[in-house]
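3.2 Worked example (two chains)
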Amino acid sequence: MTIINAESWILRFPSNRLAAERADEEFELIGVTMTDSSGMQGTGWTFTSDYGGGAAIKALLDTVLLPRVVQREALEVRALNGELFHFTHRLGHGITSMAISAIDVALWDLHARLQGISVAKALGQVRNRVPCYGSGKASPSLPLEDLVETSADYIRDGLDAVKVRVGRDTSADPHRLAAVREAIGPSPKIMIDANERLGLEAALRLGRTLADHDIYWFEEPIYAHDLDGYRRLRAELPMAVAGGEHFHSRRTFFHFAGRDCLDILQPDLCFIGGFTEAMKVAELADGMGLAVAPHFMTVLHIHLAAATPRPSWLEFYPFMDDLLVHALQIEDGHIVVPDCLGHGVEFTEDAWKTWRAA
C-alpha cells in the first residue's frame, strides 16, 4: 500500500476560556492527511497554543518532510520515523519533532486502518480503561469561585482527581488550594502545575506549603530543562515531581530519568515525534519503575496509555470536543479505550468550514 498523496492543513480556533490566560488566545492544530493507493486515509497533527507558529511547522511539512513520505509504503511507520529524524538531524528538534509528530500520527492511523484495528491495538493494547484527572478548567486567571466550581464539577462527573494551575501568585495559591480541597473532599487527588513559572527556591517553598493539602504531584515547577533543579526538587519535596511535556526528544527523558529528576514522565506525542517516540519513553519508564502520564491531547494519548507497560494517568482535557464527531467516554473515573478504526478522531464538517486556516 503506497502513499500517493500527503497534504497539510491548519485548524485555528479560540482557546478554552477556562484555560486561557488572555481573552485573545488561539489554538492551532497543524495536521497531515495521507492517502494510500487503496484510497484509505490517515490523519495526524501537532499543535501550538497562545503564540501561534503553525505556519512555520506547515512550511517544514510542505517543503521538506512530506515529499519524502509520498511513494513510500504505508506500513513502514517506524522506518519512516527514524529516517525523518535522521534526515533533519542538523535542523535540531523543536518544530522539527512537532512536524514529524503529525506525520507519525497520520501513519499510525493509516497503518491501523489498513489492518482494520485501532491504534491502541496496533501499538499492543494491554488495558481497556485508563484512569484520568480533570484538567484544562483551572487557569490561574480564573476567579476563585470559578476554580472551585469547575474542580467540583469534575468530581461530580465521576472523576477521582483534578489538576490546578499555580505559581502566578504564590501568596494566593495556598488559599485557592484549600478552597478546592474543601469543595472536593479529602479523597480525590489534586495535581498542581506551575507551567515553569517559578525559580528553584520559590518552587521548593510553594511545594512544602501546599503539601498540607495532600498534593499528588507537582508538575513543571521550574524551567523544563533544568536537570539539576529537578533533581533537587525530587529529593526535597514531599510530593511526586512530574515533567517532560516540553521535551522534543526521547533522549531528554533518558537524561532526566537517569539522573533521578522525575517521578512521573509526561511525554506529549505531538511534540516528541508521535506514537513511535512516545512508546519508547513509556518503555523507558517501565524499565526504571517510573510512572507515565502523557500530556494533553487526550483523544490521541488514550491509545498510547492503553498500550503502555505500566498503568498510566491520562489528562482529561476536553478542549476540542466541539470540533469532534465522537467524544471520549468516561466510566468511574476512567477513560474507555475506543473500539475504532485508527485513532478514531473525526472532525466535524462545521469545524473544517469554520476554523480551517487559509
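3.2.1 Second chain
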Amino acid sequence: MRGIEYRGLTRIEGPVIITEQTGNVGFNEVVAVYDRNDGRRLGRVVDMNENWTAIQIFGNNTGLSADDARVEFLGKPMELRVGRGLLGRVFNGLGEPIDGYGEIISSTCLDVNGLPINPYARRYPKDFIQTGISAIDGMNTLIRGQKLPLFSGNGLPHNRLAAQIVRQAKILAEGGEGQFVIVFCAMGVKYDVARFFLDDFEQSGVLSSVAVFLSLADSPSLERLVAPRCALTAAEYLAYEKNMHVLVVMTDMTNYCEALREVSSIRGEVPSRKGYPGYLYSDLASLYERAGKIEGSGGSITQLPILTMPNDDISHPIPDLSGYITEGQIVLDRELFQRGVYPPVAGLPSLSRLMKDGIGEGMTREDHKDVSSQLFAAYSKVKQVRNLASIIGEEELSGGDRQYLTFGEKFEQIYLTQDEYENRGIGRTLDLGWQVLAEIPRDELLRVKREYVEKYLPSSGAS
C-alpha cells in the first residue's frame, strides 16, 4: 500500500534532502524518493522539527530536482525479511538479495533497528569457545555471548585470522560441543576482501551456514550505517527465534564510523574528537550491545567486530570507545607480523575480560588460569629485558635475563606461531604453554600452583 506523496523539496545537500512535510512522520521512518523520470530510491528520516524533515538517501542525488522530486513516507521503519532461507544467501547493505536467487519466502519482517535487551533477561556468558588458535584460546579466551573486537591495522592479516576463527570455532560446554552459524557483514571493504571471505567460506564447507551482508567500497557510503543493523537483525532471528549459536563477524568498523562522521558533517552537527560526532559512543553501543544470551532462548550471539586502527593508534576514538563498550580486545602487532609471526597477536595489550568465567576444571583444564597468568607475567618481563638489552647490549645481561630472552623467542615461535589451517585443541595449547615456560627457572614460576608444576612441566626444564 502506497503512502501519500509530497512534491517538491526545500533543498538538497549531498545525500540529505530537506522537505517541509512534518505531519505524521516518525524518526527512522523509511521514505521513497522519486525523480522526474519516476526513478525510485530509498531513504530514511534522520532528523526533524516542527518546520522540516531531513531525509538521508541510500544512494546519490543524481537526477533529483528540488522542484520536481516527490517524497513518499512509507509509515514504517526499515525492515528485513527473515526466515530459515537466510543461511547460504548474500545480501547488500540494505538487506536485499544480490545472489540471483530471489527474495526469501517468508512473511516475517523485523525492524533492523532492533530492540534493547532487558538487562534482567540477559544470561551471563560462560561457555568456552575453542578457536584452535593458541594466542586466543590460551590467553584471551573467547566466550559464547561475548563481544570481542579485533584491533588491527592496514596490511595486517586480520582477515585471515577472522576466516580461521570462522572455520574452526566451536563451543565447549558442560553439555557437550556446539557449532556456529555465521553472519558476516562487510562495510566499505574492497571487492577482493569480500571475495576472499566468500571463497574461504565455500572452500571450507561452511557457506551453507553463512548469511552474508555486503556493502562494498563502491556502494553508497550511507548504506554502511544500515548494513550492520541488517546483519544483527538476521543474527537475532537465528539466535532467539531458531535457538542457533550465531557468530557475527563485522568488518570494518572504521569504515562504519567514517560514514557516521560523514552524515554528521552533512547535518551540520558540532564535531567531537577528530571530527566524529559526540554520540559515537552510544551509536557503537547500539550495535555491540546486541550480542549476548537471553532467558528463554537456547541460542546466543557472539560478536567479532574487526576495526583497523588509523596509524596503528590504539588511543584513536574508534578503538578507544570500542574498548570501553566491549569485553576486551585482540590486538595485532605490526612488529610481530614483520618478523613473520602468524597470528601476530600482541601479548600484553590483548585482553578478554570474560575469560575467567569460561576456563578451568570442567570447561578447559585445571591449570588454564595459572598458565595464562604466568605467560603474561613472563612475557612482560621479556619486554623489559629486551629494552635493557637494546641499551647495554645482550652480552651484558645476567644469566637469568638471558633465559627470559630465550623464553621470549620460544614463546613467539612455538606458542604464538601456527599455520592458518592448524587447529589446536585447548590441551595442545596448554601443553605448549608449559613447554615454553620450561625455559624459566622453576623458582620464578610464582603464578602457578606447585602441584601443576610437578604435573605438567617437562622434567628437562630449567631448574
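3.3 Remarks
The first strand starts at residue 5 and ends at 7.
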